[in-house]
Amino acid sequence: MRNTERHSMRLSIVLVSCITVLAFALPALAAYDFSVARDKGSYAVGSTVTIQLTNTGTESLSLRSMRWMVQVKESGAWREVFTEAAKPSTVSNDLPVGDIATWTWNGKDNEGTTQPAGEYRVKVWVIMPRHSYQDDKVTSSFTLTSGWSAKKEITVTSNMAQYHVGGIVNFTIKNTGDVAVDTSGFNWIIYRHTSSGPQARSTHNSTPAGIPNPLPVGASRTWSWDMRNDSGGFVNPDDYELEVKLPNVSGGAIEGNCFFKVVP
């Protein structure tokens, strides 16, 4: 056998060996696994903490027997302040691979007392007796701060900058603040901008269908306007503004607005 052929054969054997080693070295993904996280690192005392559980395994997770607790750090050790030995009502029984289950903690203990400023974390257990699986995970710690003022803020947008008379306008509201906002007193008005100032053309004193109360932090929802005025006819071509107002328990209102044009 010529030297070049022997060299080629040795090289092939080495490559196959390397590939085999790498294949055995790669860790296999667990059939059942999950992670837990919170939506922010700091919250005002008494505000809502959003918790997320993600299925990071290769099989669907059963959450029927899950439980969770909130712990506070005191003198270097974690102490339980809230426990729920059942699946949150907003969480489905089964969580497909890659999906996220979301629920909230209202910042209170099991007696209903608002918890003070401090360092906290959430601990979650997933228990599946039929599959002999049980594990627990914790979120990164977060702080409750008494001197921090929660921001209450919304943005509203239209899906286009210009519409033809008689069309449909789609609006979106998004909670861009630090806490969930009350939408029970949702008020929205369409103003026509004229040379003499804005004039209300379409007034609505009820929450559009599909918008939850409260609207969670970071959540957005869309609703439609048929371009009709308070008399039932279509609005005329001109410049228009949507103004949204939500109630604010600390006084005033939480407001958002956007501008668009109506053409023939």
Could you describe the 3D structure shown?
The chain has one helix at 3-25, and strands at residues 34-38, 42-44, 49-55, 61-62, 67-74, 77-84, 94-95, 100-105, 118-128, 133-138, 142-145, 154-158, 162-164, 169-175, 187-194, 197-204, 220-225, 238-247, 253-263. It is mostly beta strands and 264 residues long. The protein folds into two domains: 34-145, Immunoglobulin-like; 154-263, Sandwich (Immunoglobulin-like), CATH 2.60.40. Strands 2, 5, 6, 9, 10 and 11 form a six-stranded mixed β-sheet that branches. Strands 13-19-18-15-16 form a five-stranded mixed β-sheet, with no helix packed on it. Strands 1-3-8 form a three-stranded antiparallel β-sheet, with no helix packed on it. It is elongated, with a radius of gyration of 28 Å. The termini are far apart. The model is unreliable at 11-27 (pLDDT under 50).
The count of β-strands is 19
The helix-strand sequence is: HEEEEEEEEEEEEEEEEEEE
Regions with little confidence, pLDDT below 50 for 5+ residues = 11-27
Specify the structural class.
mainly beta
Report how far the terminal alpha carbons are from each other: 86 Å
Query: Shape from CA axes?
Result: elongated
Which range does the strand content fall in?
A: over 45%
